[in-house]
């Protein structure tokens, strides 16, 4: 099937992009790894595509003492290859390597992944665990939101009409920070059926656990120090989220969570 007819614009700057996106139903296009298939299946029929992939502000990287602000157009492959600085002890590159296939990673972007908000995608769960914040720009100006507040549900975000993701701020981890991440897929490259990310950074007083690949938004346990040592607490979180209705699904999630927590203590597992 081919995409329905649409118009195409490539603005020269961010102001032009925001003006174009202010037209009813317009959609931004960057890597196109999520939007492209939706267009071809006619699950999305925007009258106008606004190409933002080459806009300089979406390709910039700003380092600071507190963390790094990545332009929304930085690709998965650039994280994987170390082409951009990493404010964590290599956690971003590790996650990027496990996203789909290299062809997808060459084109897909961190900002596009968050805007698409697939609960089984790697970046939403990872960035929520790292305490990242999403930078947005639109007709009313700029604003920023924590990842867990930006994603409202499956394929649902806090983006307002005419608004675009411009960047993602990732806090700087201490040198001794540890990160555990596990996902369960039927085969390499597919979206996950269950996933969990855990960050332990005692020097900053941070211990977060995030459960992804749910039927809705990620489950975030902001103070997970006790939860990671008490399986009953994690089970209660799963039940509260309505994830215990399917016993097989619950067992899979419990296994993935245990593996992610275990990876914190074993460098060979977390590598």
UniProtKB/TrEMBL annotation:
<dbReference type="GO" id="GO:0016491">
    <property type="term" value="F:oxidoreductase activity"/>
</dbReference>
<feature type="domain" description="FAD-binding PCMH-type">
    <location>
        <begin position="1"/>
        <end position="175"/>
    </location>
</feature>
<dbReference type="GO" id="GO:0071949">
    <property type="term" value="F:FAD binding"/>
</dbReference>
<dbReference type="InterPro" id="IPR002346">
    <property type="entry name" value="Mopterin_DH_FAD-bd"/>
</dbReference>
<keyword id="KW-0274">FAD</keyword>
<dbReference type="InterPro" id="IPR036318">
    <property type="entry name" value="FAD-bd_PCMH-like_sf"/>
</dbReference>
<keyword id="KW-0285">Flavoprotein</keyword>
<keyword id="KW-0560">Oxidoreductase</keyword>
<dbReference type="InterPro" id="IPR016167">
    <property type="entry name" value="FAD-bd_PCMH_sub1"/>
</dbReference>
<dbReference type="InterPro" id="IPR016169">
    <property type="entry name" value="FAD-bd_PCMH_sub2"/>
</dbReference>
<protein>
    <submittedName>
        <fullName>FAD binding domain-containing protein</fullName>
    </submittedName>
</protein>
<dbReference type="InterPro" id="IPR051312">
    <property type="entry name" value="Diverse_Substr_Oxidored"/>
</dbReference>
<dbReference type="InterPro" id="IPR016166">
    <property type="entry name" value="FAD-bd_PCMH"/>
</dbReference>
<dbReference type="Pfam" id="PF00941">
    <property type="entry name" value="FAD_binding_5"/>
</dbReference>
């Amino acid at each position: 099937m081919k995409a329905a007819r649409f118009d195409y614009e490539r603005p020269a700057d961010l102001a032009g992009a925001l003006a174009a996106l202010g037209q009813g139903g317009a959609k931004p296009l960057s890597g196109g790894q999520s939007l492209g298939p939706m267009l071809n299946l006619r699950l999305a029929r925007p009258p106008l595509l606004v190409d933002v992939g080459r806009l300089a502000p979406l390709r910039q990287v700003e380092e600071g003492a507190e963390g790094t602000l990545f332009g929304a157009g930085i690709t998965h492959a650039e994280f994987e290859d170390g082409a951009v600085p990493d404010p964590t002890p290599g956690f971003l590159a590790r996650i990027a390597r496990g996203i789909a296939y290299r062809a997808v990673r060459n084109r897909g972007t961190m900002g596009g992944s968050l805007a698409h908000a697939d609960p089984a995608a790697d970046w939403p769960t990872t960035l929520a665990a790292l305490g990242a914040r999403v930078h947005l720009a639109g007709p009313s100006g700029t604003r920023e939101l924590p990842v867990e507040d930006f994603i409202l549900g499956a394929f649902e975000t806090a983006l307002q009409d005419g608004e675009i993701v411009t960047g993602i701020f990732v806090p700087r981890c201490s040198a001794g920070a540890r990160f555990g991440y596990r996902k369960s897929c039927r085969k390499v490259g597919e979206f996950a059926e269950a996933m969990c990310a855990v960050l332990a950074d005692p020097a900053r007083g941070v211990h977060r656990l995030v459960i992804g690949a749910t039927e809705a938004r990620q489950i975030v346990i902001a103070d997970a120090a006790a939860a990671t040592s008490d399986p009953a607490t994690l089970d209660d979180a799963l039940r509260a989220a309505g994830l215990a209705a399917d016993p097989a699904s619950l067992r899979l999630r419990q296994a993935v969570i245990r593996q992610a927590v275990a990876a914190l203590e074993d460098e060979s597992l977390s590598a």
